[in-house]
Structure formats: C-alpha cells, structure tokens
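TL;DR need structure tokens for one chain.
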Amino acid sequence: MILDNIRARAHFIIILTPSALENCNEPGDWLRREIETAMDEKRNIVPLMMEGFDFGNPLVNETLTGKLALLSGYNGLRIPADYALEAMVRLRERYLNVALSDVFLQPLSNFAKEVTESQKVSADNEDLIESTQLSEQELFEFNYLHSLRRIPIMGRIVASAPVPVPASDFGYFDIETSIDVDESLIPLGHERKQLFALEVDGDSMVDAMVNDGDIVILKAMSKDEIVRNGEMVVVWLPARGESTLKYFYEENKFYRLQPANPTMAPSLSVKMSH
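>> reply
TL;DR here they are.
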C-alpha cells in the first residue's frame, strides 16, 4: 500500500532525524525500500534535515549503501528548530512548486484509495502529540548523537615479531581517519586526548580475540604510569627501532613480550632503567 502510494504521488518527502537512517543498511528495511522506490520512479525527492542530522556523520554514511548513496546529492532543506514554520513556507513555495507535468503517476486502485482514506481519517482522530512525548524523542536523538566518542586511527601496529615502524602504507598518523566508539565501552577516567587507535597487522594476538585488520583502542601513557604484568600493550623498542603489540611481563632482568598465539614464541628484551 505504501509503495503504491509512492508511485501515485509526484513528491516524496523524507524527514531525516539523527537516527532516522540507522537501520537502512539492512536490505529489507522499510524506509530503505520507500526511498529506493521513489528513486526508481523518479519522484521529486525532498530530504527534510531536522536539527542534528548530518550526512557527514559516520553513522549516517555507513547506511548510505547502494542506491541510497545518492541521497545526499538531492537538494534538501534544513529545518531549524526555531524557524520550522518558515521552513514549511519555503518547502511549499520553492521545493514543491515545480513543474511535474512530465511525471508519470500510476493511478491508485479503488481498494488502495479506500484504505488510504481510511488511514488518513484514523490519523486525524488520533490524540495530539504532547510536548512531553516530543521531549522524550529529542532526548533519544541527543543521546544517540552524543553517546559516541570519535577516536583518531593513527596507523598500523604489528601483531607479529617486532618490526620497524611504519609497518605498511596505511596513512600513518593520518588524523583524518577515525573510528566512533560508544562511551559505554570506554573505562571511566579516560580523557579523549589520551586515546588513539591503531589497525592490527598480523595474527600473534588471535587467542586474545585480536585479529588481523581489527582496530585496537589505546591509552597514551605518561612517564609517571607503569605497565602491570599481563596487560596488553604497544611496546616501542628504541634500541631496535621496532614496535609490536603483545602481553607485557616483567621478569627478573628482562621484559617478556608474550603473544596470544600458541605457534609463536615470546620475545625477551633487556630491562632498561626507564
């Protein structure tokens, strides 16, 4: 019924809140099917971008696959919260006031007309949305936007035998590359500036569920901090000009760098004064 109505209308308006597209990367998602139908039928598509929505948001970008990748190229209209009525005037007079005489509209069947009219009457009889309900939705959208922390991916770290850095042609120290991590996954007390990410190259930590190509989040240590035995660390070996990702153990006069792969032997390093 929805798809038939899209084919029978000249205009297709998409209301985009920050979380509106969160399920659109699933092929069977209904909103995705509606948008793709409007594109296939060459409707006059107008994205209405509510406050907080941004096509540049990584969470939005990852849903814009296939045909939906074209959505950001449509002439959309931003709806500022304080000027919503003015935006509606602009929508009506500019975005919907276009010549559509050449658009082929499929007629609705009598059955579809009856169901559509019945649903419109039912919607008109619903109670008005209360301000508290709007506040709950705004809170949801705010939490959706602000529950993520963007962490820069600074390059690759080798999870094998220690090797020189950089390990590959990955954009080493490319601050423009980042990953979004939910705040709930980050231990309390970790400031944003202390965290960075590296892409894993190698399989020496597979038993720790760190696989080749995974992203590891790291905390930069100050000189006053110490590493405890059994912690997973990125170790820089200045005497050898090499780095590696391993479990760390301090034993007698040596540091042991332990892989989490039974096929690989640990590395030993002479203990340094610092």
